[in-house]
TrEMBL record:
Gene3D superfamilies: Jelly Rolls, Winged helix-like DNA-binding domain superfamily/Winged helix DNA-binding domain. This is Crp/Fnr family transcriptional regulator. Keywords: DNA-binding, Transcription, Transcription regulation. Residues 15-135 form the Cyclic nucleotide-binding domain. Pfam families: cNMP_binding, HTH_Crp_2. The keyword DNA-binding applies. Residues 149-218 form the HTH crp-type domain. It comes from Sphingopyxis soli.
Length: 228
């Protein structure tokens, strides 16, 4: 793996941030590299799972199907994401499906390989536990949003979670279409559209092709805090 890609995988929230080039070489030597096309189901909800994936290139969607067949999006994964650690660690079924939203590649690491690597790299084990804690924290926040907040503040909270900073400009962006946002926030596209249009009129956001640009992050924060 080249240095630019390594740097990308080792961003601030990455569980790989403390690893050296040699550590990476060790992970690579213990894993199988896979390539995938857009739309490929990388992990399937309900399947048994004894391996996890480290996304090295491309993006993916983590989602669950309800009993009625509706897709609920839980998260979007970017390079550096670890996927499939839950079934690998607890021996249960995959909790969600992971579908590629672009072509890409991943390292596939089996249970024994992970155990061996974790045993000799305690700082990595610590980072993996931190990632699980972060996911639990986000899941708790989602439960709170869904139970205690009306749809407007709830959408504001989801938007805040999805925001990416645009360093060139002062604004922030969310790279999702209104349909994707609806799947993420559990709201219909029409409902999302009405809400976003009203925020656009008051200058909180602007709507662009396939993305939302947040113009007034403070106002979005205020909206997200309105319980009720
Ligand atoms: N709420 C979530 N946020 C981010 N990733 C998740 C979430 N729920 C499940 N996943 C990932 O999706 C994977 C599906 O397979 P696993 O259950 O083995 O491991 C799961 C996690 O890696």
């Amino acid at each position: 793996m080249d240095h630019a890609r390594l740097a990308e995988l080792q961003g601030p929230d990455s569980i790989f941030s403390g690893l050296s080039v040699e550590d990476w070489a060790e992970i690579a030597s213990r894993s199988v590299q896979i390539s995938f096309v857009k739309g490929k189901e990388l992990l399937v909800q309900g399947d048994p799972g004894d391996m996890m994936l480290i996304l090295t290139e491309g993006t993916a969607r983590v989602s669950m199907l309800t009993a009625g067949g509706r897709e609920i999006v839980l998260a979007y994964a970017e390079p550096g994401a670890v996927l499939g650690e839950i079934a690998l660690l607890d021996g249960g079924e995959r909790t969600a499906s992971v579908t590629a939203t672009s072509a890409g590649s991943a390292l596939q690491l089996g249970r024994n390989a992970l155990k061996d690597f974790a045993a000799s790299h305690p700082e990595f084990t610590w980072s993996l536990m931190q990632q699980l804690a972060r996911r639990l924290r986000t899941a708790d926040q989602t439960i709170e949003s869904d139970r205690a907040y009306a749809s407007g503040p709830r959408l504001a909270r989801y938007l805040k979670r999805l925001i990416r900073k645009d360093s060139a400009e002062k604004s922030h962006r969310v790279e999702l279409s209104q349909t994707e946002l609806g799947n993420f926030a559990g709201m219909s596209r029409e409902h999302i559209n009405r809400q976003l249009k009203s925020w656009e009129e008051s200058g909180v956001i602007s709507l662009e092709q396939g993305r939302v640009r947040v113009l007034d992050a403070e106002m979005l924060e205020d909206i997200s805090e309105c319980e009720g």
